[in-house]
Amino acid sequence: MNSLTLWFHKIGSPRTFYRIAGAVAPWCYGAALALGAVGLYGGLVLAPTDYQQGDAYRIIFIHVPCAWMGLFAYIFMAANAFIALVWRIKLSEILSMASAPVGAAFTFITLVTGSLWGKPMWGTWWTWDARLTSELVLLFLYLGVIGLYHAIEDRRQAARAAGFLALIGIVNLPIVHFSVNWWNTLHQGSTVRLLGPSKIDAAMLWPLLTMALATHLYFFGSLLLRTRIGLLELDGGKDWARSIALGESHERAGARTHG
Amino acid sequence: MKSGTTFAACAALIRRDLTLIWRRRGDALNPILFALIVVALFPLALGPEPENLRRIAAGVVFVAILLAGLLALDTLFRGDYEDGSLEQLVLSPHPLSLLLACKIAVHWLTTALPLIAVAPLLGELLHQSEAVRWVLPTALLLATPLLSLIGAVCVALTVGMQRSGMLLALLVLPLYVPVLIFGAGACNAAQIGLPYAAPLLWLGAALVLALVLAPLACAAALRISLS
Q: Cβ of A170 under 8 Å from any chain B Cβ?
């Protein structure tokens, strides 16, 4: 076994990953908070007002990064589900299932901010536009995966079944996107389009990219913490998990006697 | 022990499934009654004006048949799971995907085909337009096997669960979206005099793809949930 494979196996073991995730997650959260603050300041204060949409366009600094993350989290989930199904890696099962609620939350935020923007711009909270519809289907796919994961008693079997559903979903997602586009263009002549990324001004672009980076970091921070809990649940009977649980209760007991 | 040929196994499975359904042939009426009632609810809710109903006729019939099929999906593996014969299928030396394809085919024949047969009647209840009369059954003929195949994969994932009805709907309906769009889209295009061949051809292409891939996926899903 060469050193790279060895390193991979080592980092993939629940015990090591638990420790590393605990060390990395606070840094992810901290960096996400700092970048988010910079990005929001840049987007909400420094960026110029749009000549057509006024200040209402500023919601894209939350909306667009969240929409990207909704897709990114789904791809991340499906890739990990694939690894889990093919190579039976326990860690990938948990990573895959841990990314589902975060991705669903991002997709939900995308839909909410989109409809908040739609009310002043389009004059309606919701319209059966192609993008909105496929985003809604994406949310349902997430909820299906989460629902299936929690409906099965055995954790590993649940992760495999839900991961399989995530893989079916990723095959279906481009088809949904294509069909919804086709459906919409058949019925509706004019569609309101979001700003094209190429047409965006540099003063608006850098806060957007900063926010995208911040949401990525937040995603990984949240993912790592969720994975830690998942690992503890799965390996609850093993020595390393027990010693952590005992250590924490000792610390708590110690704190109680001292305080 | 010597096992028979794969062809004989498939034939035996089809004969067995058909016999079981024939012995409970009253149940086969349930999806039809369900679709009939769902369609009958629309005039009650929207008012009896023929013009209004004509506009939505094809879409309503499509959705009613889709929902009836969704409710019927639950019976695909339930009986076999409860009496243990599903596990025997998984253990048999024949390719599981082929055996499952036979089961799905029988299920489609006995639940979806009767629904397609009553589709013209359902359409007439809603005063469907002349143009849709042939397009709707054609679209259903292409769409319902697709729905059965996609649904079978999701049923295989939820197979050992106690109350899987709502969850199954949550899993299946997002995957049904493209089928509904193309199927109902063909009918709507025909209704306003546009060419409707393209969506039907898309449905056909998707059906060919699903015929090959869905039984394989169904077998993989079943192995996961029976492991």
A: no
